[in-house]
Amino acid sequence: MNTLLLSDNEKDIKTAGEILSRGGLVAIPTETVYGLAANALDGNAVKNIFKAKGRPMDNPLIVHIADFDDIKRFSLVSEIPEKAYKLSERFWSGPLTMIMPKGSAIPDEVSAGLDTVAIRFPSHKTAQAVIKAAGCPLAAPSANLSGSPSPTTAAHVMSDLNGRIDAVLDGGECSVGLESTVITLAAEKPRLLRPGGITVEQLESVIGEIEVDDAVLNRLRDDEKAASPGMKYKHYAPKAKVTLVFSSDKAYIDFVNEKNEKDTAALCYNGDAEFIKLRTYTLGDKDDYKSQAHRLFKMLRKIDGNPEIKKVYARCPKPDGVGMAVYNRLIRAAGFEVITLEEL
Ligand code: AMP
Ligand code: MG
């Protein structure tokens, strides 16, 4: 299959809409990461997303809409919980996904057989325009090969999926850089399943206390069932072996400088780089979690671009605010390999 490279103009957005409405696959920019979109109401089109990504069929997809009323118009959910109205008023359009009881129009492929469905209204203007041009809600997981770091540019998408999908629409770099916050409102108590650009504190300021699922910060045991199936898979990992190092600035710098080998790199904060003898990749300033979120996948892919690098020692923020999202992705990229020199 020849993958068409589209631009961010009216004509190409219309072309993307046409491909999608006839059951094709188009990677589109959003404010979080690039999404691999298909008509969410067409089970066969959705099946092709799983094939193109090599995604396990038991990992459900997020349905993207371009208007709150699309939820009712397309019978996406059986009931809109009160808290969903409140959260949507404050955080939609934006990087928040809400899980609700599934509606009659949702094919099993989208929900992976669950009785719930994940819905998001992205704020990215091009994403909204493509959804409108397609005339249907779009199921769209991240547009990467399953397991690899999520794509934040069209070039990342091409490097994973060229020849496997119909088109990529280039809308520039994604602003948030990490996938959306996922909260379920289908359980008795609202529960955070995946941290993202909208923080726990922000959510609690609107709907009161929420639970944080165990799998957000910890490794699931083999026999444990994941509330969010995506959490059980090794994720976001570059080809090199990543180890997280929890420590003070000085102890980290001393630690990596002892590993002075050509196949080893440091994924660190801006302030560390000048003191480190190894090759460095920077996430941003130590307290600037937004920059760390924005740069994390880009840096993991850059590391992948250097085949010499086999080992990476990474710094990781405290799981506070947007830092929780960075921590959640990094600890999975590291397969939970951690060295603690000093507690965070
Ligand atoms: P991705 O779009 O690749 O970022 O993946 C979507 C994430 O949302 C995965 O971690 C899924 O497991 C999760 N998800 C989607 N739908 C549901 C659902 N109905 N219940 C729980 N988690 C879901
Ligand atoms: Mg993904």
In words, what does this structure look like?
The chain is of the alpha/beta class. It has two domains: 4-216, DHBP synthase (Alpha-Beta Complex), CATH 3.90.870.10; 241-340, Rossmann fold (3-Layer(aba) Sandwich). Helix content is 30%, strand content 18%. It contains eleven helices and 16 strands. The protein has helices at 10-21, 43-53, 70-73, 82-91, 108-111, 125-134, 154-161, 200-207, 249-258, 289-304, 323-333, and strands at 4-6, 26-28, 35-39, 62-64, 96-101, 116-120, 138-139, 167-169, 181-184, 191-194, 211-212, 241-246, 264-268, 279-282, 311-314, 338-340. It has an eleven-stranded mixed beta sheet with strand order 1-8-2-3-7-4-6-5-9-10-11, sandwiched between helices. Strands 14-13-15-12-16 form a five-stranded parallel beta sheet, with helices on one face. Strand 10, helix 8 (200-207) and strand 11 (211-212) form a beta-alpha-beta unit. Helix 1 (10-21) crosses helix 6 (125-134) and helix 10 (289-304) runs parallel beside helix 11 (323-333). The longest helix has 16 residues, at 289-304. The protein is globular, with a radius of gyration of 20 Å. The protein starts with a strand and ends with a strand. The model has no long low-confidence stretch (mean pLDDT 95). Adenosine monophosphate is lined by residues 59-60, 62, 99, 111, 114, 116-118, 141-142, 179, 182, 193-194, 228-231.
